[in-house]
Amino acid sequence: MDVVDAAGTFHARVAAADVAQLFDAATHALVLARAESGVGVGDGGALTAAVPMLCKAVSLADLAERSRLKVHTRDQKAAAAAAKAARKPKNEAKEFAFGWAIDERDLLTHRRKAIEAALDKGVRVVVVFGAKRSKTSRRVPPEDKRRLVALVESVCTDAGARRAAPDAGSIDGQLTLTFGR
After folding, report:
1. Could you give the angle at the alpha carbon of 113 between the alpha carbons of 108 and 115, nearest 5°?
2. Last residue of a domain, one of 39, 61, 83
3. CB neighbours of residue 96 within 10 Å
4. 15-69 pLDDT tens trace
5. Which stretches of 78-151 are assigned E, i.e. beta strand?
6. Which of 127, 132, 130 has its CA nearest to residue 94?
7. Which residues contact 13 (CB under 8 A, 6 or more apart)?
8. Cβ contact 167:136 at 8 Å
9. If you write DSSP's letter for every residue of 122-142 in order, what string do you get?
10. Cα first-last separation, the chain
11. Residues 6+ positions from 106 with CB-CB distance below 8 Å
12. Rounded Cα–Cα distance for residues 134 and 85 (Å)
Protein backbone atom coordinates (compact mmCIF):
# COMPACT_ATOMS: atom_id res chain seq x y z
CA MET A 1 0.00 0.00 0.00
CA ASP A 2 1.02 3.62 -0.47
CA VAL A 3 0.99 5.80 2.64
CA VAL A 4 1.14 9.53 3.38
CA ASP A 5 2.47 9.96 6.90
CA ALA A 6 1.56 12.61 9.47
CA ALA A 7 4.20 15.02 8.12
CA GLY A 8 2.76 14.72 4.59
CA THR A 9 5.56 12.58 3.19
CA PHE A 10 4.59 10.00 0.56
CA HIS A 11 5.83 6.41 1.06
CA ALA A 12 5.32 4.03 -1.87
CA ARG A 13 4.65 0.33 -1.51
CA VAL A 14 4.86 0.02 2.26
CA ALA A 15 4.11 -3.36 3.82
CA ALA A 16 1.12 -3.40 6.14
CA ALA A 17 3.32 -4.44 9.07
CA ASP A 18 5.60 -1.40 8.60
CA VAL A 19 2.81 1.19 8.41
CA ALA A 20 2.45 1.47 12.20
CA GLN A 21 6.02 2.85 12.44
CA LEU A 22 5.18 5.88 10.24
CA PHE A 23 2.83 7.60 12.71
CA ASP A 24 1.87 7.68 16.40
CA ALA A 25 -1.36 5.72 16.87
CA ALA A 26 -2.19 7.71 20.02
CA THR A 27 -2.51 11.01 18.10
CA HIS A 28 -3.21 9.89 14.52
CA ALA A 29 -5.40 7.45 12.63
CA LEU A 30 -4.94 5.83 9.24
CA VAL A 31 -7.66 6.80 6.74
CA LEU A 32 -8.24 5.10 3.40
CA ALA A 33 -7.93 7.74 0.66
CA ARG A 34 -8.07 5.44 -2.39
CA ALA A 35 -9.02 1.77 -2.62
CA GLU A 36 -6.86 -0.55 -4.64
CA SER A 37 -7.92 -1.11 -8.22
CA GLY A 38 -7.01 -3.58 -10.91
CA VAL A 39 -4.94 -6.72 -10.52
CA GLY A 40 -1.38 -7.10 -11.74
CA VAL A 41 1.44 -9.65 -11.51
CA GLY A 42 4.16 -8.80 -9.02
CA ASP A 43 7.59 -10.31 -8.28
CA GLY A 44 7.66 -14.09 -8.44
CA GLY A 45 4.34 -14.26 -10.32
CA ALA A 46 2.20 -13.35 -7.29
CA LEU A 47 -0.99 -11.37 -7.94
CA THR A 48 -0.86 -7.79 -6.67
CA ALA A 49 -2.95 -4.67 -7.08
CA ALA A 50 -2.02 -2.67 -10.20
CA VAL A 51 -2.86 0.55 -8.34
CA PRO A 52 -2.31 -0.04 -4.63
CA MET A 53 -4.50 1.48 -1.96
CA LEU A 54 -3.50 4.87 -0.60
CA CYS A 55 -3.80 5.55 3.10
CA LYS A 56 -3.19 8.82 4.90
CA ALA A 57 -2.27 9.44 8.53
CA VAL A 58 -4.65 12.08 9.90
CA SER A 59 -4.62 13.60 13.36
CA LEU A 60 -7.47 12.54 15.62
CA ALA A 61 -8.28 16.22 16.25
CA ASP A 62 -8.75 16.78 12.50
CA LEU A 63 -11.03 13.73 12.31
CA ALA A 64 -13.13 15.05 15.18
CA GLU A 65 -13.39 18.47 13.50
CA ARG A 66 -14.46 16.88 10.19
CA SER A 67 -17.11 14.84 11.98
CA ARG A 68 -18.38 17.95 13.78
CA LEU A 69 -18.58 19.84 10.47
CA LYS A 70 -20.55 17.01 8.86
CA VAL A 71 -23.04 17.07 11.73
CA HIS A 72 -23.19 20.87 11.49
CA THR A 73 -23.98 20.80 7.75
CA ARG A 74 -26.64 18.12 8.33
CA ASP A 75 -28.24 20.37 10.95
CA GLN A 76 -28.08 23.32 8.53
CA LYS A 77 -29.82 21.28 5.81
CA ALA A 78 -32.56 20.23 8.22
CA ALA A 79 -33.04 23.84 9.35
CA ALA A 80 -33.22 25.02 5.73
CA ALA A 81 -35.84 22.37 4.92
CA ALA A 82 -37.90 23.43 7.94
CA ALA A 83 -37.66 27.09 6.92
CA LYS A 84 -38.77 26.23 3.39
CA ALA A 85 -41.77 24.32 4.74
CA ALA A 86 -42.63 27.30 6.95
CA ARG A 87 -42.60 29.65 3.94
CA LYS A 88 -45.10 27.49 2.08
CA PRO A 89 -48.53 29.07 2.36
CA LYS A 90 -50.88 27.21 4.65
CA ASN A 91 -54.14 28.32 3.08
CA GLU A 92 -53.73 27.29 -0.51
CA ALA A 93 -56.82 27.35 -2.66
CA LYS A 94 -57.69 25.53 -5.86
CA GLU A 95 -60.04 27.42 -8.11
CA PHE A 96 -62.55 25.72 -10.41
CA ALA A 97 -64.25 27.96 -12.96
CA PHE A 98 -67.44 26.76 -14.62
CA GLY A 99 -69.87 28.35 -16.99
CA TRP A 100 -73.52 28.27 -16.05
CA ALA A 101 -74.14 26.03 -19.05
CA ILE A 102 -71.90 23.21 -17.79
CA ASP A 103 -73.31 19.75 -18.36
CA GLU A 104 -74.27 17.94 -15.16
CA ARG A 105 -72.57 14.74 -16.35
CA ASP A 106 -69.34 16.68 -16.84
CA LEU A 107 -69.67 18.10 -13.33
CA LEU A 108 -70.39 14.68 -11.79
CA THR A 109 -67.50 12.83 -13.50
CA HIS A 110 -63.99 14.21 -13.81
CA ARG A 111 -64.73 17.65 -12.31
CA ARG A 112 -66.04 15.90 -9.20
CA LYS A 113 -62.86 13.80 -9.00
CA ALA A 114 -60.69 16.92 -9.29
CA ILE A 115 -62.65 18.67 -6.53
CA GLU A 116 -62.43 15.62 -4.25
CA ALA A 117 -58.69 15.26 -4.93
CA ALA A 118 -58.10 18.90 -3.97
CA LEU A 119 -60.12 18.50 -0.78
CA ASP A 120 -58.23 15.30 0.11
CA LYS A 121 -54.96 17.25 -0.12
CA GLY A 122 -56.35 19.69 2.42
CA VAL A 123 -56.62 22.54 -0.07
CA ARG A 124 -59.56 24.93 0.02
CA VAL A 125 -61.77 24.70 -3.07
CA VAL A 126 -63.13 27.83 -4.71
CA VAL A 127 -65.85 27.22 -7.30
CA VAL A 128 -66.64 30.14 -9.59
CA PHE A 129 -69.83 29.93 -11.68
CA GLY A 130 -70.31 32.24 -14.61
CA ALA A 131 -66.60 32.84 -15.07
CA LYS A 132 -66.46 31.05 -18.41
CA ARG A 133 -68.57 31.99 -21.37
CA SER A 134 -68.75 29.75 -24.39
CA LYS A 135 -69.08 31.13 -27.90
CA THR A 136 -72.49 29.53 -28.19
CA SER A 137 -73.57 30.36 -24.66
CA ARG A 138 -77.18 29.65 -24.01
CA ARG A 139 -79.41 31.29 -21.48
CA VAL A 140 -79.70 29.17 -18.37
CA PRO A 141 -82.85 29.57 -16.28
CA PRO A 142 -82.39 30.48 -12.59
CA GLU A 143 -83.83 27.09 -11.52
CA ASP A 144 -81.06 25.27 -13.42
CA LYS A 145 -78.45 27.57 -11.86
CA ARG A 146 -79.77 26.79 -8.38
CA ARG A 147 -79.67 23.08 -9.21
CA LEU A 148 -75.99 23.38 -10.30
CA VAL A 149 -75.11 25.21 -7.08
CA ALA A 150 -76.88 22.52 -5.02
CA LEU A 151 -75.06 19.83 -6.99
CA VAL A 152 -71.65 21.37 -6.26
CA GLU A 153 -72.59 21.73 -2.59
CA SER A 154 -73.55 18.05 -2.41
CA VAL A 155 -70.30 17.01 -4.13
CA CYS A 156 -68.25 18.98 -1.61
CA THR A 157 -70.24 17.90 1.46
CA ASP A 158 -70.03 14.26 0.34
CA ALA A 159 -66.25 14.72 0.26
CA GLY A 160 -66.36 15.93 3.88
CA ALA A 161 -66.04 19.67 3.24
CA ARG A 162 -68.10 22.55 4.55
CA ARG A 163 -68.54 26.16 3.53
CA ALA A 164 -65.39 28.11 4.36
CA ALA A 165 -66.71 31.53 3.36
CA PRO A 166 -70.04 33.11 2.50
CA ASP A 167 -71.13 33.19 -1.13
CA ALA A 168 -69.77 36.03 -3.21
CA GLY A 169 -71.87 37.31 -6.10
CA SER A 170 -75.29 36.20 -7.23
CA ILE A 171 -76.99 33.68 -9.48
CA ASP A 172 -77.77 36.48 -11.93
CA GLY A 173 -74.06 37.00 -12.71
CA GLN A 174 -70.94 35.43 -11.27
CA LEU A 175 -71.17 33.33 -8.09
CA THR A 176 -68.21 32.19 -5.98
CA LEU A 177 -68.51 29.31 -3.47
CA THR A 178 -65.65 28.43 -1.07
CA PHE A 179 -65.30 25.02 0.62
CA GLY A 180 -62.75 23.60 3.02
CA ARG A 181 -62.24 20.98 5.68
Report:
1. 95
2. 61
3. 17
4. 877 877 887 888 888 888 877 766 555 666 565 656 778 888 888 888 888 777 6
5. 93-98, 124-129
6. 127
7. 1, 2, 52
8. no
9. T-EEEEEESS---TT-----H
10. 66
11. none
12. 40
What are the C-alpha distances in Å from 80 to residues 71, 73, 74, 75, 83? 14, 10, 10, 9, 5
Strand ranges (DSSP E) for the chain?
Answer: 2-4, 10-11, 28-34, 37-41, 47-51, 54-59, 93-98, 124-129, 162-169, 175-180
Q: Is the distance from CB of 37 to CB of 29 less than 8 angstroms?
A: no
| pLDDT single digits (tens) 66-88 | 777 676 677 777 877 887 777 76
| CB proximity list for 161: less than 8 A, separation 6 or greater | 119, 125, 179, 180, 181
Cα–Cα distance for residue pair 124/95, rounded to 1 Å: 9
Compute how many other C-beta atoms are within 10 angstroms of the C-beta atom of residue 128. 18
Q: Which of 178, 71, 73, 170 is nearest to 119 (CA)?
A: 178
What CA–CA distance (Å, rounded) separates 22 from 42? 24
Domain containing 143 equals 93-180
Q: Are residues 44 and 101 in the same domain?
A: no
Determine the Cα–Cα distance for residues 173 and 170; give it in Å rounded to an integer.
6
Indicate whether this model's pTM tops 0.70.
no
Q: Residue 143: which CATH number? A: 3.30.110.10
